[in-house]
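Technical appendix A lists one of the benchmark inputs used to test multi-chain prediction within the project. The record comprises two sequence entries:
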Amino acid sequence: MSSTLIIGMGNRTRGDDQVGLRVLDLLRRDLGAQVEIIENHGDGLDLLENWCGKKNVYLIDAYTEESDTIGKIKRWEANKEKIPAQHFTSSTHVVSVTEVIELARAMNKLPENLIVFAISSGNFEHGSQLSRDLEQAAETVAQTIKYEIGENRHA
Amino acid sequence: MKKKSENKKTKTIKVDYLARVEGEGSLYIKFQDKKVLDVKLKIFEPPRFFEALLRGRNYLEAPDITARICGICPVAYQMSAVHAMESALNIKIDPMVRKLRRLIYCGEWIESHVLHIYMLHAPDFLGFSSAIEMAGRYPKIVERGLKLKKIGNKIISLLGGREVHPINVRVGGFYKIPDSSLFKSLEEDLKWAREAAYESVKWVSKFDFPEFEQNYELVSLVHPCEYPFNEGKIVSNKGLSISPKKFDDYFKEEHVAHSNALHSKIKGRGAYLVGPMARYNMNYEKLSDLVKSTAQEIQFPSTCLNPFKSIVVRSLEVLYAIDEALRILSEFEMPLEPYHKTKLKTSTGYACTEAPRGLLYHRYKIDDKGKILDAKIVPPTSQNQKSIEDDLGQLVPQFSDLSEEQLTWKCEQAVRNYDPCISCATHFLKLTKEEI
């Protein structure tokens, strides 16, 4: 079993909230069995179990920040730095991404390397599609993750 | 952000964004000396129009659509939906299917109550501003809570097809019943969970609780044979005893200007309280022997009217749900068929089931092709809104000697006593368009 795990968070029926899952779709196509890929559809607390025993974890989710353009990509190395809480205040998950990461940090349950990609999103309407800007952003994030894994950046 | 403005005579407590509740709400209290002038629990989460969404849909879609109202209690919506449709179409479900519905509801009570106890409410009693802070000090305890919640999710996932918004519940039963070996695999987890739930009860029973009681009208389902999940009469401690079919005759919903969630009242009487405390008081004798002996062990009485102690009641209900789940698993036999087929007719169906937060009412009118013509959904949190505001109205005078920061925290804690699910409460709003 690979020591690298990629987790996409989101809901495929809620517009831009599916962007994390879209990144996984792109990575499955190119990385296949090289890494483990998990979809998380809403319970952030599951992350603690998902990444248990994994050394390198990539986590992709949508975020909202009024001042950021839709499709803007942010990257954090969450094991080394705190993610600003305001990006995930309106969470569609039971517990937000930042809360789970800080919970894991408090309990000493963060993976050795936790890379979080967050994509600025605007539309969370039920039944809507992923917006074009987010499709492009998903492609960019997928390419970046593939490059980092290929470079063994976190080996 | 919390603000206090002070002139010579009046003070206000204003919490712009309530923490550790599900959904988006705020609090405003204005008081003068020990007299409360105004209390508003403001729900600003946008209204979600689910009842309108259901009109024109097929009756079989009701459990799947209504499950989307909430990510924490989707099973409750599915149960109220299927029971209402079955009441409309005179469907009698298989006895084993009935037990499996109780089992999936056990799963939801476990995961919802445990989430609230450990992540949202316990920090208040231990002086922590968040579960994260609490986890730093008590990691093993929080780990116990997370593992308990996971076991509740496993039950839902097994019977429902997935943890969030299950897909296997349908009118007449389930689309598919899992193999008996999969049920067997739950037993070991549940035996661990029963011990962990017992420890949870003992842990919360040691918290310091303020002395605070109200003369509530408690409303819950009551069943002659069991602690209620899916069936029973709607009964109150002040004389109400009606079938779910009569809900609209006795309860009414009102829109208030400061909230996107409707307020509920008993006609001619006023506010009432639903949820674990109501269920516990009305159905104590139906709890399992283990739960009753545990309550006696911690010297917790069979009646409780202190909402701050609802965390103990929730812990006892978690223990009950696990005990009940093990009992159901010990009696499991594969049903003859996973669901009854239905014969359609124009009709109206009604049902109440006990969501983790309390009574959840559904009513549907369908035509002879199975199209939903009309729907009404009354969730527990909107039923409790008035009681929450009334509690705050009584609480502030009692604790007005506290510092501003302590009083504000006490008020927020009082809201969290009810484990409000604001996403549920805002599922509906009547929209009136006025052209000027």
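The radius of gyration of chain B is 21 Å. Chain B has a mean pLDDT of 89. Comparable benchmark entries are summarised in Table A2.
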